[in-house]
Structures are given as C-alpha cells and as structure tokens.
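Request: When convenient, would you put together a sequence paired with its structure tokens?
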Amino acid sequence: MSYVSAGKEYTRDGRYLGTRITADGRDGHRVEPGRYRLVVSRACPWASRAVIVRRLLGLERALPMAVAGPVHDEHSWTFDLDPGGRDPVLGIERLEEAYLARDPGYDRGITVPAIVDVPTGKVVTNDFAQITIDMAVEWKAYHRPGAPVLYPPELRPHIDAVNEVVYKDVNNAVYEAGFAGTQRAYAAAYARLFERLDWLSVRLERSRYLVGDTITEADVRLFTTLVRFDAVYHGHFKCNRHKLTELPVLWAYARDLFQTPGFGDTVDFDHMKRHYYLVHTDINPTGIVPTPVRSPAGRAPLRCPLPLPPLSGRPPPRR
C-alpha cells in the first residue's frame, strides 16, 4: 500500500468521528456497560493507548474489546484472528462495515481504535485522543477499585501541554519522517523528533513520570511510541540517530513502564512488525519482516534524584 507521496510532506488526516460516549449521554451516547465494543489492533500505537488505558482502569467487562489482525489492505482492518474471520459479537469481517453502517458515504480513514455501538452495528467514535480521556473521566463509575487517576483535574493543563508537544514532535513526527516524500521534509521531522527526545530525557531525569508523581495519560501516549522505536521507527522510518536502548533515561523510563501491568502485557511485537513491514509496501517492497528485537523487559536504574516508590510488575529476567 502507498503511504509516501513523492515531493510532498506527510500530513495525517485528522477528520475523525468526534461523537462522544458520556456519563450523562449529552452527545447522544450514554456510558452503558456491555453496550459498546472497542475495536483495536495491537499493531497500532493509537489503538494501543486505548488498550492500555482500558486495562489500567479495569474496564474489561464494561467495555469489551475486539482485536483486528495486524495486516490490512485498502479496505483496512479485518477480523482474521477470529474463527471464520468474523468478529463474534458484531458479526462483520471488516471494520469498514461498521463505518459504512453509520455513513454509507463515509470517505475518511477506517481507523483504530474505534468504538462500535453493538445494537446498531455503527461506529460511534474513532477520535483516539478523546477516547482515552473519556475512559478516564466519563467511565469512572466502572473503574476498578484502586484504579489510577490518569487525568486528574488539577494536572489537566499540564498533561494537555505535554501531550500537545509529544504528539507533534514524537508520536506523529516518526510518521512524518517515515512517510516523507522529500529530503527536506524528512530532515525537518527527524530534527524535531530527536530534539524532543532530548528534551524528554532532561525532563525525566528529574521526575519518574512526565506529569506529577504517578502515571497519567501523558505517560501512556509517550510509551506507545517508545515501545515501537527500536522494532520499527529506528530502521523502517529512518529515525536512526539513536536507538531507544542508546538513550539511557528514556530506556530506563520505558522499561519501568513496560513491567507495569497494563503496559508490557498488552504489547505484541510480532503484530507491530508484521503491520509496518508488510503493509507499507512502498517503504519495504520485499515484505521482509525483521527478526525479534530486544524488549524493554526488566528494570533499569532510573536517573532520578527523588526517592522512587515501589512499582509492582514483572521481575527482571535473570542474567
């Protein structure tokens, strides 16, 4: 599939279905456990945010999840991981069917994550940035006991500010580099990316988490790019000044999050690599998928001058 336009910069299509599912139903869709189905792919960093937040907040029963396969065609995501190639709840082969059920003339991206209204079979929203915020705020009545507060009111301006620069200079910049159609566009995205990674390294030398002293939405958004960095972005997208393993502060931070339940246990490196290396045929026309890369399992010392509270998770592997 073609993602690179020669002579042009890459621009993400930001036309999402912005309908929200809220506690009071003010946008036409009320939070109701079991009514909706979250459709994701473990290959996709935008969808992985929703997978992590759902797990952290304990919304597994309230918001059931469908997992699409890692490789798609021009009609986008399919349910080839399910018996018969159909989602057992929605009864569809392709996520496209749920988009067209909402709007037969739909002409935008068939993207994940998407939340589908099960009774009607229609996509409610694919606004990935708002989906996780609403899980944290609007679905609060169904959070597990002791769930983290991922979007605390007093920190929202700070979280929003960090999210904005991380989206522009990290989450999306890797795509702007990888799908650049000119040397100039690639160089600009590459420079912005590594300048921001250096900025993040300085920030995380002074703090265990990006905003405040606990995990927030900001950490989830950064993690999904970092965990794909060496497996995909360093080589496939030519973001190769350094590997993540060569950036000590960010490597320690990623490893710390990886062993936190909800992060590493939702990651699938096989799905990641098969998606990027098989779908982006204009970048990788041979379809060769790299062999496994080093996973950020195990804890490295954090470069933080403050005392670090214990964080449960996987023990480091024996050396």
About this structure: The chain has ten helices and six strands.
